[in-house]
Amino acid sequence: MRVQSTPEHTHVSTPASPALDVLKHALFLDFDGTLVDIADRPHAVIVSDALRTLLAALHTVTALALISGRTIADIQSLLGDQFAHIAGVHGHEMKYGGEIRRDEARHSPIPFAAAEIRALQRNDRMPALVEDKGASLALHYRHAPRAEQEVRRIARDIATRRGLRVLEGKMVIELISGPHTKGDALMNFMRTPPFAGRTPIMIGDDITDEHGFRAARAAGGFGILVGAARKTEAAYRLDDPAAVHAWLQAGLAQ
Ligand SMILES: [Mg+2]
After folding, report:
1. Which of 19, 120, 171, 185 has its Cβ near the most Cβ atoms within 10 Å?
2. Is 30 a catalytic residue?
3. What is this structure's pTM?
4. Could you say which of 30, 32, 74, 205 is catalytic?
């Protein structure tokens, strides 16, 4: 299985293709754009039986966690509830060993931001598809790419007034409360079994996965970027979700 070294790391003289070692590694997997191809709308993604089988097999033999911007409920509706370890909404929701913990902010500004957004929707001034994830509000504009600047302007305006953070992803701008990132989620998992003591590998495609790549490297592991080469903290790259499936399958077969 060929894993390409990213341009930022071409100085590495022997970019060994790191095969997955199910006994040694801890796998942290993003979902959209990493395990499944991105769809026009978040609920239109296709999860194949082959992917479900692959993930279930990996889950039984290695330390595996899903780290997504989606809610845990959403991930479980797509993949089933057999996974013991999931980070949802960029780490705001954590499922450890089957138990879900949510970071419930007592004075979250999210409901106020949501009310503002609903007002914009009523006046036909919100071009994005709005997803309320509790700890965050995701403004999806994949169906209306020309609205990007307007969506960004609205998001920044509300974020500034409500004290929220803006998190940009692929065709989505998120308003999020609190400081959590996918890197924090990875580090939290790494402190607990079955992850502790293993070498972390973060696989992701989006800008928000860069925190995960950085955390994996800080913990002695590495990141694998999915998609076209870009400036990244990941040490390696795979072309698309199909290449990720093949890489995972090869590790499983060893
Ligand atoms: Mg992704």
Report:
1. 185
2. yes
3. 0.86
4. 30
